[in-house]
Amino acid sequence: MGAFKVVFSQTIPYIDPDYRSIYLDIAGEASVSCADREGSESDVQFVQTMIVAAIQEQISKFSNEFVSHKDLPAKANVMGQAVAAELGARNIVLNDFSIANIAPDEKSMQRINDVSKAQSFAAMTPQEQMKIMEEANRQAQESLSQLSAEQRRQAEEQAKKIMEQQAADMQKIMEQINQMKGAAAGTTAAAGVAAAGAATTTSAFKPAQPAQPMVKKFCSNCGAPRGNGKFCPRCGKPLT
Fold it and tell me: Looking at domain 2-108, which CATH architecture does it have?
């Protein structure tokens, strides 16, 4: 039986409940043993492929369950179980499994930070927002006062470009926040409508009552009213 280690790393797309589409960098190591594999390069690549596929499938499940990317490191054992099951189906035993890193990649982390800052700023009172902008302007003016005329001109042009870009980025971030709020509200409203519809359907629906058998009111022999007895009060014939 061959025993060998496999190092794996992969960038996996993830739908985070707070930040929508991001990418996760995942890296770790596994130790396996197999009766018909000795640990050749092709063996290692094969096991790597199986490990990454199992992790991707489990990550997709976490995404569908609305698990935050912040909670994923604590679920490494669940991913290990998924990997063990995937390898076990191919007669490969998982002896050890560890994830060294599972976090948003650099670009995703930058967007997460930008969204968090925008959310924090949006939650402030107008007075707090004005205070922050005034302080930023004061620091900018202080820095500019220490430059030469040419340096100041160049710095002002650069600052203008940066501010325009930041304003555009902030607009995009606020649009994303509003979209996320709208999606959440839409989901809640749809659930309410569905529940109301179900309630209306339930209350409006009444099962059909079984048809009552028709009872004859007159004697079929002489036509006299039948009364409550078993025989006709006029001709004496049995009532049917």
Answer: 2-Layer Sandwich (3.30)
